[in-house]
Specification:
By secondary structure, the chain is α+β, with helices and mostly antiparallel strands. It has helices at residues 2-22, 41-48, 54-57, 158-179, 188-206, 211-215, 225-247, 263-271, 292-311, 315-319, 332-354; strands at residues 28-37, 68-72, 81-85, 93-102, 106-115, 119-131, 134-144, 322-325, 328-331. The strands form two sheets. The protein has a seven-stranded antiparallel beta sheet.
Length: 362
């Protein structure tokens, strides 16, 4: 009996000590990270105030590709709720609500977790102008660990973990917004700048990737980054040859009014990844690339003739060449614009691949 009492006493002490320690461990935690985005403040704020857009840049929204998401209310306004449900314990079940929007300055969110644990936390995003074309974005999170679960803070740096995830999301947000084309003004200068911008974005997206990263496939029917690169290069060659052929034909200035699609609408349509298409057989990738530098060299070699062509092009002549496609009527300028937009579209696809939770680290 005496031995049993000792055992019970030891067990009681083992249980009591952590509970006592937990009384002195902080329960609140907070994390904030920031990034500077080369876009005007109004443009940045308009994007981040829509909660659905977090699905494009938030690390947490991409942890489970099979996660079910539902919405209630009008996005971009207080009261809008995004609800998620996942069988993965790292995602669980919960919802996020826009609680308050301070016009052009700040959005406050409330996160309500249901599974695998219950808690209510607060988050926010703040925008600050650096100059007319630069915006600082801060993303913060305030939470509380209930007693005695706060004891976990002794063994895990919760604030650092959340901060790292916030930074990952902000870096992705920067990439998304900076890869979006500015509003086309219909000039040769814009066309050239758009080509240079999409070249930089693609280069930044793939430079330094390993063979494992280039050839990673996230699931059946999905393309790897290497396959995206091969498709971009093959498509640019084909589209440029087609554009030159059409522009070499006699101009038709009297038909300019038949072009109904604006340059801005064309870029928006091509770069919109919400609708997927199957590439024709001749533009399907065959597995040509396992080296990022080799692919980029081929891409630049393919693109340089297009840039040379644009630099010597006459704007009026481009606009006077009317080209009929199965999807509608465009002009020569828009045909060239389409090529760069197509590159931007698949650069977004590459970033989608890189955002997969099982994407190789190296």
């Amino acid at each position: 009996m005496r031995i049993l009492k000792k055992i019970l006493l030891v067990l009681a002490i083992l249980i009591a000590v952590p509970l006592i320690v937990a009384l002195f461990v902080k329960k609140e935690y907070s994390a904030e990270r920031e990034v500077t985005i080369n876009r005007p403040k109004t443009e940045v704020f308009e994007y981040i105030k829509h909660l659905k857009n977090q699905e494009q840049y938030s690390k947490w929204a991409n942890l489970d590709p099979n996660m079910k998401t539902t919405y209630t209310g009008t996005d971009g306004t207080p009261g809008f709720i995004s609800r998620w449900e996942s069988d993965s314990d790292s995602v669980g079940v919960g919802e996020q609500e826009i609680k308050k929007i301070t016009g052009g300055e700040r959005i406050d969110f409330e996160l309500r977790f249901e599974k695998p644990f219950e808690s209510t936390e607060q988050a926010y995003m703040i925008t600050e102008s650096v100059d007319n074309n630069q915006t600082k974005v801060k993303w913060g999170f305030n939470g509380k660990m209930k007693y005695p679960f706060n004891l976990i803070c002794l063994f895990m740096n919760i604030e650092q973990m959340i901060s790292n995830d916030l930074q990952t999301g902000l870096d992705k947000l920067k990439l998304i917004l900076e890869s979006q084309a500015p509003v086309p003004d219909g000039s040769i200068a814009f066309l050239s700048d758009y080509y240079n911008q999409t070249t930089r974005n693609l280069t930044d997206a793939v430079k330094g990737l390993s063979q494992a990263q280039l050839t990673f496939v996230s699931g059946p029917g999905k393309w790897s980054i290497a396959q995206c690169l091969e498709h971009i290069i093959a498509t640019e060659k084909m589209l440029f040859e087609m554009a030159k052929t059409e522009i070499a034909k006699p101009a038709q200035p009297t038909r300019r009014s038949e072009v109904k699609t604006t340059d801005e609408a064309l870029v928006s349509m091509v770069t919109d990844r919400s609708e997927k298409f199957n590439a024709p057989k001749e533009l399907q990738p065959s597995g040509k690339y396992v080296n990022a530098n080799l692919a980029l060299n081929d891409f630049n070699a393919t693109r340089q003739p297009v840039l040379d062509y644009i630099s010597s092009a006459d704007l009026g002549n481009l606009r006077n060449h009317i080209i009929e496609h199965p999807t509608g009527i465009s002009d020569g300028y828009q045909n060239l614009l389409f090529i760069a937009a197509h590159s931007a579209r698949h650069t977004k696809q590459i970033e989608e691949v890189k955002s997969q939770p099982n994407f190789p680290n190296q």
